[in-house]
Amino acid sequence: MKEFYTVGEVSKIFNIPASTLRYYDEIELISPWKTGDNDYRYYSKAQFEIISMISFMRSIGTPIKRLKEILNEEGADGMLAELSRYSAEIDERIADLKRLKTKMRIFEDNISKTCATDEVTIEELPDMYLMCKPFGDEDELDIDEIIKATAGTGKWADTAGIISTITPENLMRGNFHTYEKYGYISELKWPAPNRYTSVLKAGTYVCGSMRIRTVEHFEADAAYRKMMDLIGEKGLTITGDAIERNVLDLYSGDRYSPTMYFRIYIPVKLH
């Protein structure tokens, strides 16, 4: 193995642009060890370890100023501290990717169940998490509480669907447009409870889907009747409010009048 290498050779060996190596030389981060008779400048193979280390530290985001400080320290404490910082950053990236994958799986599952079929099913659902309030004169959720639920790494509201609820009494009377509460629902738990939060307990639910294209939501009647018919046929008792969840909106050629896909959950039990 030869002893000295040109800027171009080192550039190819370490996949570092020659311009970057010249910049490192200019700012005295690392410089070639000798100049040949042809005025070419040469790095020694003895510099390869530090070139490799500089390349790696720059790839993990270590600023040049900090890197020069680390290189001029007597011991390895600075290097170890920087590697520890980057390790913690990697852990956070991994956690973010896991959260993103979970959100994607939830979104994909809800879309598949809602948009692919209008079949009514009986399903065992896990706990789901609500943030909602009754309809009323002050028909607004506290925006600060929503922001708190969205803030941070979890970003709870990113996974949440907008919901309205219908009481068992109104379901039995066929009042499918008389809503009790509105807000948000998610399979992921909110980061902290507040005055609007509650848990929709795991259990048995009659589940259905509907596609809405009218402002008046006329299509909801057929979907709810189909679900109520199944409840009657199976001898089930409604045990709580129906949850009407907005899963997906598509422009369908008209962004001022989107097609809306909803998933409906009605909690039930056998007589």
Number of distinct helices: 8
Strand content: 25-35%
Helix content: 25-40%
The largest sheet is: 9 strands, antiparallel
The CATH superfamily of the largest domain is known as: Regulatory factor, effector binding domain
Q: What this model shows, in words?
A:
With 271 residues, the chain is of the alpha+beta class. The chain folds into two domains: 4-72, Multidrug-efflux Transporter Regulator, Chain: A, Domain 2 (Orthogonal Bundle), CATH 1.10.1660.10; 96-270, Multidrug-efflux Transporter 1 Regulator Bmrr, Chain A, CATH 3.20.80.10. It has helices at residues 7-14, 18-26, 48-59, 64-71, 77-115, 143-150, 168-173, 219-233; strands spanning 4-6, 34-35, 41-44, 121-125, 128-134, 161-166, 181-186, 197-200, 203-212, 236-238, 242-250, 259-270. The strands form two sheets. Strands 4, 5, 6, 7, 8, 9, 10, 11 and 12 form a nine-stranded antiparallel β-sheet that branches. The longest helix has 39 residues, at 77-115. The protein is elongated. The mean pLDDT is 91.
